[in-house]
Amino acid sequence: MSKLVPPHGGKGLTLCLLHGSELVAEKERAEGLKKIEITPGERGDLIMMGIGGFSPLTRFMNKADWQSVCEKFMLSDGTFWPVPVMMTATKEDADAISVGNDIALVCNGELMATMKVDEKFEMTEDMKRKECELVYKGEGEDSADDKFWDVAPEDHPGVIRVLNRKPYCLAGEVKVLSEGEFPTKFKDIYLRPAETRAIFEEKGWSTVAALQLRNPMHRSHEYLCKIAVEVCDGVIIHSLIGALKPGDIPADVRVKCIDTLVKGYFVDDNVVQGGYPLDMRYAGPREALLHATFRQNYGVSRMIIGRDHAGVGDFYGMFEAQEIFDRIPYASYEDACKVPGKALLCQPLKIDWTFYCHKCDGMASMRTCPHGKDDRVILSGTKLRKMLSEGGDIPDHFGRDEVLAILREYYEGLTEKVEIKMQKAASGEAMK
Amino acid sequence: MSKLVPPHGGKGLTLCLLHGSELVAEKERAEGLKKIEITPGERGDLIMMGIGGFSPLTRFMNKADWQSVCEKFMLSDGTFWPVPVMMTATKEDADAISVGNDIALVCNGELMATMKVDEKFEMTEDMKRKECELVYKGEGEDSADDKFWDVAPEDHPGVIRVLNRKPYCLAGEVKVLSEGEFPTKFKDIYLRPAETRAIFEEKGWSTVAALQLRNPMHRSHEYLCKIAVEVCDGVIIHSLIGALKPGDIPADVRVKCIDTLVKGYFVDDNVVQGGYPLDMRYAGPREALLHATFRQNYGVSRMIIGRDHAGVGDFYGMFEAQEIFDRIPYASYEDACKVPGKALLCQPLKIDWTFYCHKCDGMASMRTCPHGKDDRVILSGTKLRKMLSEGGDIPDHFGRDEVLAILREYYEGLTEKVEIKMQKAASGEAMK
After folding, report:
1. Chain A residue with minimum CA distance to B268
2. Selection from A125, A187, A217, A132 nearest residue A402 by Cα
3. Which of the four pLDDT bands, split at 50, 70 and 90, describes residue B337?
4. Has residue B150 got a pLDDT over 70?
């Protein structure tokens, strides 16, 4: 029997990705169905449902689930779930579809899934604003009551995504027909929940931590992972390989950094690298809960939550994503005993702000280092990007040389591309 | 309601140390009782029972408990307990005492307790050998089947203690009348379970780790503590202030080292220093279980178990004290649900061999550092003692300078004492 934490929801991995002849038949059937274009964000959710990453979800949510999730952190059947998973449609499409219809879901020309529509409802502007306030509004500076709606639509990509939703929602069970580019484009690190579970089991692990990663891995992330390795059987460095916001570093560069770091600074046997096909929602605390929830499906029992997890701007308090685990329903071990299958079992591994400290003579955090600001090597992402792209010297101990070299190369490439563009533009000008 | 782990055994802290008028009256009554001399080891166990450190134990064990503990890790009522807690008597004393008698327990002239004897039994040589084999025999080199009885009586202080027991055991409930020198001699760090619990609660902690310490605290111990601080609400550096084996460093020097280290290298608010009045048994894995059991009474939920915990010589496998937690009965959370009150709730925080590594550029363990022997700063206790007492240079990064200075001073003092003794001896010779 597996010693790993069971998938969320008490029903095992609920896979709805079709294979083989079933897939061929369903694709054929889909040809005759009405096609609805879905967004890239909805596509990510769909693939996660397909591979069991969103177990026990195998459907886009109806209105009751949407409301229950927003207000009570649970599906209408009482199963813990932290964020809405919605499929939206234009008024025109919605008018053309009746409850009971089968439809085909398409994204950028690719057939992704079929769905049996069992509910259709309007997603009013009021509902969108309610979701933003309940799910995306934190306790950080930008979320202050008098400020949130001034700042959010421009600076919060998650809020924009909700506000830009089409005006109708379609709910229903899905059959997923494709995992898109992930199995090929990221063939070395794209792992489905059943695959990570098999890897963990083969290694004999029972307690597994996950590091959520959407930025290059520096020593502060390395330190988070190493704490996890000290106290768990192993760690999965789990990169988001879906869409990020503009300016973030692409997945292939991040993966190369991780490879290099693991090779030079980790005991190979205690670390697994993987990627998951979801887009960022930037929902801060709520997204931290989602990260723990789907990680449980991947076989992870401890989700590393550092500072400003899944945050953006100053929308969330620095440790709000840690604190939320203490106040949600159904997330303690006691609750898990009372409502088997419905509670979140993957627990947070909360770690404070980490850095290198000269006096500590090693990595430390605000919880372990009593020294002053001047003893610590701390660098903002913005400052680091500037240093890397301008070829400036990075302070000692901040990153591993091999990793910084990869990032420098990436930024130099970017600069070259810009220069080529500018040259082309200039020569174009000249030819006129 | 306290968020701390409840005391072991499901009965709260079972205190049997008397106070005030009750104490005065019992002391008076004890004057008229037959006095039995107990050993220093038995005295330590007695004080732990008095202050609730051994909850739910308030009695020296009878034969059924002794056998059940040796063979099944539990008292005869099914409560988890890892080591025998026995009171022994000479044949002469045993002959003079009948079941039902009240007796007074005395150690080095001090009245320590009264006991109502409810069972008297012979502790045969066979029983002693059986206890040694079941409780003290590990899987290390010195414990190899063909070797244990050759090596143990000389080199294993715990085995010696069992073999030297007087031939009878007296069992019964105790009333403890004194905590000996601990509240005065160690007034700054002697803390009773109710006191550590009050401190932890005031700090708002729920998950608390304990570091067991009987040696000076170097960076490897500091690292264990800091990992614990990263993942728990706080840590108690818990020093044994009872008796050690000859050659070990006395408690006051160790406490001074810890003070210095905490002051310079810890965030004060995350650390508590305490001492407990027990002697070492050197029972390795079984003692690690005892350490977790009584720590639970102090409010500790995670017991740090490093390499060769509570070991001596090569009697135990390097990580045997970690592995035992996986195979004892009643020590998993599932068991805790099935047999409430009887299971051990304090879980191990297992950490591998730790050291400073130049390539890692900080502290690391065998689980996190992939580098070679030459990159690591590792020093045996014997080698360190030699360097300290001979004034040699300690390798960089091994310890904190302030702590090493205290140890140097201690060893210099030792050398002076030896020199004075030798001078006295020499002048005595000369005077003859």
Report:
1. A370
2. A217
3. low
4. yes
What secondary structure letter does DSSP report for B210? Answer: E
Helix (H, G, I), strand (E, B) or coil at B283: coil
pLDDT exceeds 60 at position B432: no
pLDDT of residue A39: 95
- Candidates A313, A297, A192; CA nearest to A241 is A192
Question: Tokens standing for A146?
Answer: 């008098």
Residue B40 tokens read as 């220093």
Token pair of B136 as six digits: 């003290």
Chain B residues whose beta carbon lies within 8 Å of the beta carbon of residue A266: 368, 370
Residue from A1, A102, A107 nearest A44 by CA: A107
Establish whether A214 is a catalytic residue.
yes
In this prediction, residue B334 carries a pLDDT of 56
Nearest-Cα residue of chain A relative to residue B303: A231
B386 or A340: which leads in pLDDT: B386
The hierarchical CATH code for the domain A181-432 is: 3.40.50.620
Q: How far apart are CA A35 and CA A177, in angstroms?
A: 14
Per-residue confidence (pLDDT) for residue B105, from 0 to 100: 98
What value does the mean pLDDT take over residues A38-58?
97
Residues of B with a Cβ under 8 Å from any A Cβ are 226-227, 229-231, 264-268, 270, 333, 337, 349-352, 356, 359-370, 397
Q: Which fold has domain A20-123+165-176?
A: Sulfate adenylyltransferase (3.10.400)
Residue B128 contacts residue B165 (beta carbons within 8 Å) = yes
b/e code B326-364 from CB counts within 10 Å (16+ = b): eebebbeeebbeeeebbbbbbbbbbbbbbbbbeebbbbb
- Which residues, in sequence order, are CB contacts of B129 under 8 Å at separation 6+? B163
Q: What is the 3-state secondary structure (H, E, C) of B319-359?
A: CHHHHHHHHCCCCCHHHHHHCCCCCCCCEEEECCCEEEECC
Q: Which chain A residues contact residue B370 at CB under 8 A?
A: 264-268
Catalytic member of B214, B254, B286, B385: B214
Q: How far is it, in rounded angstroms, from Cα A354 to Cα A375?
A: 13
Distance CA B132, CA B138 (A): 10
The residues, any chain, with a CB within 8 Å of residue B50's CB and separated by 6 or more, are: B15, B16, B17, B113, B174, B176, B179
Rounded CA-CA distance A388/B196 in Å is 50
Domain map (residue ranges) of chain B: 20-123+165-176, 181-432
Instruction: Give the whole-angstrom CA distance, residue B255 versus residue B273.
Output: 9
pLDDT score at A2:
82
Query: Is the pLDDT assigned to residue A431 strictly greater than 50?
Result: no
The per-residue pLDDT of chain A, averaged, comes to 92
Check B370 against A264: CB less than 8 A apart: yes
A338 in Cβ contact with A351 (< 8 Å): no
CA distance A329 to A417: 50
Q: How far off is chain B from A397, nearest CA to CA, in Å?
A: 8
The end-to-end CA distance of chain A, in Å, is: 73
Cβ neighbours for B323, distance < 8 A, ≥ 6 positions apart: B285, B317
Mean of the per-residue pLDDT values of chain B: 92
Distance from CA of A223 to the nearest CA of B (A): 10
The highest-confidence range among A281-285, B49-53, B256-260, B400-404, by mean pLDDT, is B49-53
% pLDDT > 90, chain B: 77
A387 conformational bin, left if phi > 0, alpha if psi -120 to 50, beta if neither: alpha
> What is the nearest CA distance from B200 to chain A, expressed in angstroms?
16
- For the stretch A126-163, pLDDT in tens is 999 999 999 999 999 999 988 999 998 889 999 999 99
pLDDT of residue A205: 96
